TrEMBL record:
GO terms for biological process: response to toxic substance. Keywords: Detoxification, Flavoprotein, FMN, Monooxygenase, Nucleotide-binding, Oxidoreductase. Belongs to the nitronate monooxygenase family. NMO class I subfamily. The keyword Cytoplasm does not apply. This is Probable nitronate monooxygenase. Its cofactor is FMN. GO terms for molecular function: nitronate monooxygenase activity; nucleotide binding. Nitronate monooxygenase that uses molecular oxygen to catalyze the oxidative denitrification of alkyl nitronates. Acts on propionate 3-nitronate (P3N), the presumed physiological substrate. Probably functions in the detoxification of P3N, a metabolic poison produced by plants and fungi as a defense mechanism. The lineage of its organism: Bacteria, Bacillati, Actinomycetota, Actinomycetes, Kitasatosporales. CDD domains: NPD_like. SUPFAM superfamilies: Inosine monophosphate dehydrogenase (IMPDH). It comes from the Bacteria. It catalyses: 3 propionate 3-nitronate + 3 O2 + H2O = 3 3-oxopropanoate + 2 nitrate + nitrite + H2O2 + 3 H(+).
Amino acid sequence: MSALTDLSSFSTYPIVQAPMAGGASNPRLAAAVAGAGGLGFLAAGYKTSEAMYQEIRQLRDHTSQPFGVNLFMPQPGTVDPSAVEVYAEQLSGEAAWYATALGDPEAGSDDGYEAKVAILLEDPVPMVSFTFGCPERAVLEAFTKAGTYTVVTVTTPAEALAAQWAGADAVCVQGVEAGGHQGSHRDDPQLDGAGIGLLSLITQVREVVRLPIIAAGGLMRGEQITAVLAAGAGAAALGTAFLVCPESGAPALHKQALTDPVYARTELTRAFTGRPARGLVNRFIREHGRYAPAGYPQLHHLTLPVRRAAADLGDPQAMALWAGQGHRLARELSAGALVETLVAEMHAAEEARA
């Protein structure tokens, strides 16, 4: 496989479909984005290594264009079991209401990382990105030898420096506006609420590293993409914007909620997974968010049966409705049409500035 050497060589347009774990990102969505000139991504988080491999095979059957695969980094064993037990007691009423048992919080904390890395080194893909930490230098060097371009998600300038030192090819700079989990390398509850806005973060990261930047966080329109490119990013990653596309694997309830006026705002919460993640504020977040401890992925495993039962019953009030701050700008377009619309908006914004 020939190595691609910079962000511009991966797609016609600097538009990346952000990897969204949990089912939203799938081969169909990634292929549609790639076919329209963007960069499609698969999300390996919460999947077995075999499931990841099968999705890669499916995507290759649908497109010959470059694509990426996102991995979750293993998490340190620093979670307080007693805090998780207390939270489980609080959620007993939720389990009873939805007629399900709570999940096993000790169902695993490495997300099959080593097996997934082994598969991706044996059968390389064009790009691999990492969330919740930075791989060791030896891992990144192995991907480089395999011809794979590596990207590390960062939320601070210090994390960007760590990624550069370890040998990453690029960083995905994630602003606090982003939907879903904040990809911070270390989960420190004392830093809750201290996230940095995307435009400010791009500038701060550019001051300390020389790596190419993919900008992520609340981006929904072409003019916003133009703005982050002008600020120094080489590409823009959009998640929530693609979440409502028919190719997305997100549940219909989740898609509908993004533009439903009932959900007026988003909030960073630990309620569902024990790690800060931005979602539409629903009953579950209001009732449990303030009590949720730092406990990822233990709380993810604990609450998963409740979330699934709520989805099966058609009740979005106990689902994790991940969404960025721009969710009300979501448009029900096919993935290809959305890429075309974003490109047209970018051109219009550039002409207006000329």
